[in-house]
Fold these 2 entries.
Entry 1:
Amino acid sequence: MGTASDIKLIDENGLRIDGRSPTELRPLKIETDVLDRADGSAYIEWGGNKILVAVYGPREAYPKHTQDIDKAVIKARYNMSAFSVDERKRPGPDRRSVEISKVISEALQAAVMVEQFPRAQIDVFIEVLQADAGTRIAGLTASSVALASAGIPMRDLVVGCAAGKVDGKIVLDLGKEEDNFGQADLPMGILARSGKIVLMQMDGDLTEDEFNQATELIMDATRRIYEIQREALAGKYRAMAIERGGE
Amino acid sequence: MAEIKQIVMPGDPIDSSLGKPRNGVYKCGDQQFCSEYFGIVQISDQSIDIVPFAGPYFPRRGDKVIGKVIEVGPSMWTVDINSPYYTLLHMNDTPWRANAGNIKKLLGVGDYVYAKVMTVNEIKESWITLKDVGLRKLEGGHITSIPAPKVPRIIGKGGSMVNMIKDATSTRIVVGQNGLIWVDGEPENVMTAISAIKMVEREAHTTGLTDRMQKYLEEIRSEKNGNSI
């Protein structure tokens, strides 16, 4: 959004600046259990995004005043590395990352069965190693995989995806240029099976029709991302069984 | 050959025609049950359980657990039982005659105990006791741990797996429901027993594990004999 420019983001064939069609996702790869010390972890590569997520807990919440007597609190911490963007990012929490931490915590809270762990906290550390538009939804997607691999009871997996408006057209999964020079960005977090929305933000303007169209694109993409999440979790165990069977 | 059990994700519907849904499921519709864990489906005499691959241990009344003393108070010990919540051991729940204010000499910080969960309340506070047959302070030995959901695999049907490891490695083993395992014996044998336990942990989701374990232990034994000759 923001800066208007003469860059043509969609060419005469209807293809986008990186050669994708309007409904195409960027390449997506998820890996689980990449960290030994954490209770659960995941690594996601989504387009140019590279994000590492570690889950700790549930454990007793400290400081004690943050405890909730009848449910667990989820403390997600979204952090961008100094080297994750073109120009050095000043380390530490800022307005943007505090906001993202909050919306991700709330989205995960809707999926995790927090009422099973009174007084506890679940820590989710989201470290952005390389940023390339859509880090909050990539972080959210990886967080839910990490939570599942930590054995934390959940109602559903959370899938994140974004759509937006570029050169007057609704497109799926904005890239960096489209995010910077497009007209709208709509990131969403969705419970994969029930289709309930747990995170939604919008930057820029969309008409009602455009909004519905964008939502539809996201819902459709969610199913594809969900399959990748499932494969990331189960693939390893299946591979191990095949290996053993082959002996 | 190792066959894999059915893997489910959080939110996956469970086919309740195969049995009555029991642990690890929640109601996600009128007549529909869904998994709440990433784990495997276990069907046993008319009930279905979802066994997660990993996850925390939750104390239940009557569980026998291994815990580590982390703090000594005037009349209570705070014990870490590998769970999200610490548990408490009161001096009156031990077989020893204790005087308040001087219980440090009975159990110090870092000591391990094999204890039974006495009570758990609704906010998950729990108390353990040492007053029962077989419960004691664990002296010497090594502690190793596995995820709590995999404990039933270590024990095996009627204790078959753990007894097999004990016999084959001539060690003493105590398995806590919380996933902590105490192994005592000759250092070499302890290492063998721990490697066998780690193998169960890695392959807990496959079938025919007891047979494979037998083969593995026999292999180690014959290897050892071969070296000594």
Note: The beta strands of chain A are 28-32, 40-46, 49-60, 73-80, 120-130, 158-166, 169-172, 184-191, 197-200, 203-204.
Entry 2:
Amino acid sequence: MTKRNQMKIPTSIFALMSFLACTLVLAFPAPAASQTQNVCIQCHGSLEGRLGKPVQQWQGSIHEQDGVTCNECHGGDPKDAVNAMSPARGFIGVPEEKDIPGICGRCHIGVNRDYLASAHGKALGKGGPSCVTCHGNHAINRASLALINERSCSRCHSYERAGELKDAMVKTETLITTMEDKIDTIRKGGTDTEPLEKALFSARNQFHTLFHDVDVKKVQNESARINRDLGKIDASLEAILKKLHERRIAGAIAVGSALLAALILYLLRKTYEKN
Amino acid sequence: MKISKKTYDWLETRLGIEELIGKSLKGYLLPRNINFWYSMGSILLFIFALQGITGILLLIYYVPDAEKAFNSVKAIMNEIPFGWFIRTCHVIGASSMVFFLLLHMLSVLFMGSYKSPRELNWLSGFMLFTLVLAISLTGYLLPWSQLSFWATTVATNSVGTIPLIGDFLLEFLRGGKLVGPPTLGRFFALHVAVLPVTIAVFVMIHLFLVKRIGISTPPFGLDDTKNRWDDGKFRYEDHPGGIPFFPHYLLQDLTSIALYLAIFVFFVFFTPSLFFPADAFIPADSLRTPAHIKPEWYFLANYQALKLFPNEFIGIIVQALAMTFIAFLPFLDRGKEKHPLKRPVFTACAIGGILIFLALTIWGHYS
């Protein structure tokens, strides 16, 4: 570049350009911060066999997704490697079977109440199941009706009655799952689904209280009532989906009109070119 | 005499409309081999106008207060008639602006239109590019969602890596040590007042330069593809025997705008959530960091490139130098040849740069 050409650019433009260029690149985001430290996961995650397996099972579980880590059930201090397993820091190791509902019930208060009132809860310590018998301990998935199955229930008793209970609840469960998918689709488009989510959350919680009940008649009646409530929520969801569908029809017309306009303008230009 | 004719004559006497149309539109001749890529500027003008209109409409209901901003945006999307449409247009329009600016700049690069005497056209265009990125970044914070809050936190963090003045700059930009209500106020002022006015000024400068210097001749379909400007004194590049802007090229511009509109409307109606990740619908929470914070697609390459450097500040300096190099390209590339195939080194470097940008963008997206 010649000196004369350099002289043509005003100094202020140079300064402004450099400032803008720097400001721009400085605005680029940097990599995200590292994950929160947890010494239980760090140590056990690097171990193999019996001591490492719980971490592998926990990873991907509903508890991991919700940020529930080892110390919530086993006690101890996940921030202090030296005293992580110190009883003085509340470490209890593997909980006693009779203590399990109490530990889970610290968070799942309502479910614990339902369980303790059920035949299962009343049989705790007398050969009856605790929470982990059906739900597992580390690889816990979101509770669903799939947990009631012949293979699992037949470990303790015949499946017949459990099957009746499941049949009474399948329709409601399916309805809830379908509605969750609908809400997810609608939310992604920017529609406010909070009131509907809250209503569904409430209905689902009422429904889940039945999961620990073994009174077939009661479960049938309650399921029917919850289905009616769900029907109202579903009607609102369907109305939103219908509106979104209508928007897409309007969109298709708009796209078609724009394309048609482009074609007409193109042909008009060609006509002028020929002339 | 009809009232309309009387009105026209009255205006004609005072404004000389026929002469204006004849001289500025019909008499404004363009090179005969002008192509589709020359309509990118018109598409961009259309997008700028649309962003301005949708932005003003959003301003009617948006509340720039950290306590109310998220709910005001939620109301726009759900309660205000056609609010969802206006906001989606604004969001998709923002990405369109960057995309078509890139296309416009690439076409200018490959056709050698940035060469003398159009250095200032390129510079003003580059300024517009940086300003558009800045307005996009400031607009990102306004919905006050988790996405807005954390993307801005991470983006502004980079400023703090500058030695000596980093901390001061960071606090100046945020209006405090952390992103908070004062940051929203600052970004709002920049987004709706400072940057739009600055962009409008640079658009006018850019258009003035285009009109004053004349349209460059594309290097395609000609035997002699060298830049004929002799660098001596000002000369308007006219095109005797060329095609008139009105109606010929105006129809091409309108065709391109209609095509753009079809694509734009498709995105608005059929993929409205394309630029709305899940965190965009969760209110900002300074105590809860989302698992993955990623910038918009046009910052992904820079975001990924920063990770490749051992020190963030070095990464920033290297990128600043690269940006400055592109800004001053017309002053560095003094070759006369304009045809991309007759300047293979430049073309290979440019294609290499585009491929690196695309690779880093894809890598950034999946990282």
Note: Confidence is low (pLDDT under 50) at residues 1-14, 25-36 of chain A.
